[in-house]
């Protein structure tokens, strides 16, 4: 053990091998503070070569490795288990933006670069890096890739997977695969890139990536529409897609209860409507031409939706500042929820066309099983992704309600699977949803996944206990 | 052998197991007619279940399987070798469009559906299926997926990979993996889908897929710009992307020689300019709003490019019909080339920012090695994809020049790899480029690919000799 740590220190330097409880603590506790694991040490290499040498050492010694980026994951994918047998390998010191090519519209980054820094580097070159999510000030691009992170830009730009052109990966044997290609087309063999993306560090360690950039839109303008039901939100979205195509860059669904919670806990935020409506949709139109063009397109589309009887009321922002105000309502839902107490969260996706029926069928099932429970349902309608959270009935103790977690999951996830949906749309599996995965995936698919794991990580040292 | 074929007939029906030379001939010869392989039989199953049972039988008997769609591939990926040991398994009878969901914007298809039929089904539902390529009247969606086909829509919509949400695959053991999900977000384990896409049938047989649809643009309008050099084409493309964003749906580069060949062999086609210029770019703007909007956007962008001294001359179509006329110039380049004689073809990609320098450096190298040779260079500039074809000097016999194939490949592919490019942008590897792949891929990457192949096809019966 001491010999192992000495050899780690010889590779990464003594300052970057942490083995005291205080030094290791932030690397062992998960983002939501629900679980704290244990580790032999935390390794903080400063180069790709050091990563490779540390992995080779761990392979020799059969020491399990838990790769870690910003440690902002929500499914216990980036923290070790309680056994204390593993090392945490933090990529945070690999934080260099290696190159930015404005003509190829690519940026080549170390895995440990914080997402917001990628966004800022793109903006400085008059480009857009469209990945955007709540943890962007702390999460790293390597973690985004390993979990195939989603966020609010997926409708137009896709998940992290769709934003990546090339990867550099340290394999479980300690070899470096240099796949840092900045190519839009490359049909030369198996798609290793997409195999590592979303593998949550169980097949190798992503150390660098080539990410796509886009021309920055000239302006993005937002509207808030009041709707009678989720069914009407689907109709509104279809209308907007037909009229605006790729200029529709956001479509977020929020129930009345979501905006109630925001109004209660953040009274300073705007209240766009004097009345309350069953559902709301936040729409964003971006224009590569001008702000005027965006406003005009949004006004004509919401006007048409009004004429067609789809929307009950609508507020169209007339400036970028007003647009930010409307987005704040959406962004404060998770904060308002947290302020309101605990709840049982689900990150699910469905075929977009099934969303209204899914909500209409599943909410009564929940009410029947857990009378009075409150459904806090919001999400990225354009991606079919709902945050479908179940809060206790008013006045019911949080902890008392949380004992229903397993039973609530069963109602929600059984319904999701019956509708052809996914039990993890954007958060991944980690250790938290591993049993759920085993329950719902077919044996054929599980066996294919196990065969790949065994082929690429025969010693089973890469983030064991996650996903499979 | 007879017993094996009898068992095949018991599964697929006697009419659908071909073993006469005449019956098998069209399945054994490659699209360009350069190679004819040999097979025990051609199997034409009529259902996914029959595919699975035939594969299980082949696995039991260790009979290699060559999956085949429309057999329009260009790299000998869908025909058997000369040994006669394999069976061809044609998916052509699996030709049903299983479902189309206009709200989810997805179409679920059998692998054997012809690409044009998918396009037509989408159009009938007021949607766009954007994959478009020369062989679309014959190629099948299963083949498009297995080769990750590109085409002219990649700039805006991506390759076939980016258009696919879910797959159904028969594994080499004869199991059916049902991954026909119509989800935009799904982070539940390894990305099997993208592993099968582009694997050219070496890991399993794609039998069905869920493909993305898009709102159909209201109009697409085209312009032809005359340019001093490829460098200026890159500047024009950047300007257009900045001003038009996702509305820029096409950007094709063509050298003077390309349009010369078209004019010579297709004199009835329009000649847009009275003078000759070194390079041309075909631009397409699509609008979700109106034809007027598309024309206006294209005119203002080309005007700005003219003012900036980027373009020497430009013709903007003012109607959809005129736009078709300009596209015909581009589409007739391969036909004009074929009419002109044989040449040595390369399907390469590069970082977009390297294209001008690549051409400027590589053309003189070719001239030095093969004086007088003619470079027919055209392609999808927005994707960094060039068809970089080398024709004999005027008056030199075709066959005499073709003996230089290996030496010409070496000049071109060495340069491609030095610039960080790909030796197969959209055509794949098949049997034709297998040695080139082995030459240029790193040992680490080759070993990863081999490990995956061994894990998923341990008997090595799936399209052996292709890719690896």
Automatic annotation (TrEMBL), chains A, B:
<dbReference type="InterPro" id="IPR016169">
    <property type="entry name" value="FAD-bd_PCMH_sub2"/>
</dbReference>
<dbReference type="InterPro" id="IPR036318">
    <property type="entry name" value="FAD-bd_PCMH-like_sf"/>
</dbReference>
<dbReference type="GO" id="GO:0022904">
    <property type="term" value="P:respiratory electron transport chain"/>
</dbReference>
<keyword id="KW-0285">Flavoprotein</keyword>
<dbReference type="InterPro" id="IPR016167">
    <property type="entry name" value="FAD-bd_PCMH_sub1"/>
</dbReference>
<dbReference type="GO" id="GO:0071949">
    <property type="term" value="F:FAD binding"/>
</dbReference>
<dbReference type="InterPro" id="IPR051264">
    <property type="entry name" value="FAD-oxidored/transferase_4"/>
</dbReference>
<dbReference type="InterPro" id="IPR004113">
    <property type="entry name" value="FAD-bd_oxidored_4_C"/>
</dbReference>
<dbReference type="InterPro" id="IPR016166">
    <property type="entry name" value="FAD-bd_PCMH"/>
</dbReference>
<protein>
    <submittedName>
        <fullName>FAD-binding oxidoreductase</fullName>
    </submittedName>
</protein>
<dbReference type="Pfam" id="PF01565">
    <property type="entry name" value="FAD_binding_4"/>
</dbReference>
<comment type="similarity">
    <text>Belongs to the FAD-binding oxidoreductase/transferase type 4 family.</text>
</comment>
<dbReference type="InterPro" id="IPR016164">
    <property type="entry name" value="FAD-linked_Oxase-like_C"/>
</dbReference>
<dbReference type="Pfam" id="PF02913">
    <property type="entry name" value="FAD-oxidase_C"/>
</dbReference>
<dbReference type="GO" id="GO:0003824">
    <property type="term" value="F:catalytic activity"/>
</dbReference>
<keyword id="KW-0274">FAD</keyword>
<dbReference type="InterPro" id="IPR016171">
    <property type="entry name" value="Vanillyl_alc_oxidase_C-sub2"/>
</dbReference>
<dbReference type="InterPro" id="IPR006094">
    <property type="entry name" value="Oxid_FAD_bind_N"/>
</dbReference>
<feature type="domain" description="FAD-binding PCMH-type">
    <location>
        <begin position="35"/>
        <end position="216"/>
    </location>
</feature>
